[in-house]
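Sequence of 4-coumarate--CoA ligase (Musa acuminata subsp. malaccensis).
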Amino acid sequence: MEEKAVTPTPPSTSPAIDPRSGFDAVSRTFHSLRPPVPLPARDRPLSFTSYAVSLLPSPLPSLPAVVDAATGDALSFPDLLSQIHSLAAALRTEVGLSKGHVAFILCPARLDVPPLYLALLSLGAVISAANPASTAAELARLVGLSKPRVAFATSETAAKLPGDVPTILLDSPRFRSFLAGSGGEVPPEEEVGQMDVAVIQYSSGTTGMVKAAALSHLNFIAMVAGFHASRKLAAERRRREAPDVTVVGAPLFHSMGFFFLLKGIALGETTVVMGGGGGAREMLRVAEKYRATSLTASPPVVVAMARWEEKIDLAALEFVTCGGAPLHEAAAHQFMSRFPDVELRQGYGSTEGGGIARMIDREECLHLRSVGRLSQNVEAKIVDSVTGETLSIGQTGELWIRGPSIMIGYAGDEKANASTFAPGGWLKTGDLCYFNQDGFLFIVDRLKEMIKYKAYQVPPAELEHLLLSLPGVADAAVVPYPHEEAGQIPMAFIVRQPGNNLKESEIMDFIAKQVAPYKKIRKVVFTSSIPKTASGKILRRQLRNHSIYSSMSRL
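Predicted 3D structure, token representation.
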């Protein structure tokens, strides 16, 4: 696949760059206010696994590397590295996996997932992890996009995979023997380049059906390097000396859960994985039990924490990283009132763009409506989506970004790549944003049509396609409906066929049987017509401002 991402030149001391906002008045580009982070030479062969291991201290940390919150089982750093080595050898010699082969992974959070991820990356194989709650039809489409050589699943999830994909069960004696090591001769490793594809993650992109975003080893190296560079400064600000323990609430197949797992291992922290289940109550119980210093949480969990009334000991907790969906300002205020000693660090990223912006200290966390400042090595432009004019401080337009964390491109979809990338390696995010005079980024609205339900992406086009197959539906459109806990929920506008009396429950049930739970239609409005452009494109903004929709929003 043709390389699209471009590593930016670190901002100079040019007088054209405003030191307060990071805006370069000459190039009309916003630069990160964080100190630039040096990265390995682009042409140096380096897998993410090799990079992560190089950051670990010697001797290895004595604290656990990964803890399974569901079972309490833990994996030490020495055992993790041993399993990575043994598993990589077995996957090469016994499974025949090598550089470029795609491994499709369909399983809940387990202790054998981290060594599997890192073993695959060390080989140059490509990780393609999916939601175990997906239906067989959804998985068939994902498999068709990624074209895996092999799949890894469990006894409970394997049946949903297409029958022509060779599958290895993680809960089988065979896989357990891979982790233990065979002791046989291991063939030499293939050279893995930083721009080789490391991961395929699924995204709706700016419009339409699910796409396969190809991410390189460099993408993850660059993001971890940014966190690694911040460690010394963070350590100087710590309120207490305590081991770093992060509870990851997002599932490990999700871009946020996936990254924070890799980051925690590379930085020698303890990562407690939850798999996205249990909600706020379980997350707080786990945080208390393991004396977590940080949490990753979706907005619904932050909302629930803000309303928490039961006694809980979170004395070790220093900050909560919130991302994946919009967080209401009122909920942020409530959280800060309930947990005054805990920093609520909001951030902004995407499958395609990686970590774009985040907050890193208490002062930045006071900017509640913002998603933080640009991450290290990231450049941005604000572009008028109609005129193409590059805008300045305080002006709203589409956010374009450039940097080493940006995806290579959509696998097998050059049409989508052509519409997503602009000349010079700029990624069009599809989000309407602006920067203030202090370099804080604010998201105003979305050009993209994707709905964010909790931390999951729901493409309206997919649901509309299903709705139009239901007898009695003449036309349909799906839009996001604001919801305090979920951020947004999918709501359908339905035009019935003449003489038909379809009910809301029938429509909801029809969709629920065909999609994962997070994609369900949760509200239905019957209407006489769907507003469209002359070319037939749905005018979603008009629907979102529809009188019925507006009146419902006030309820």
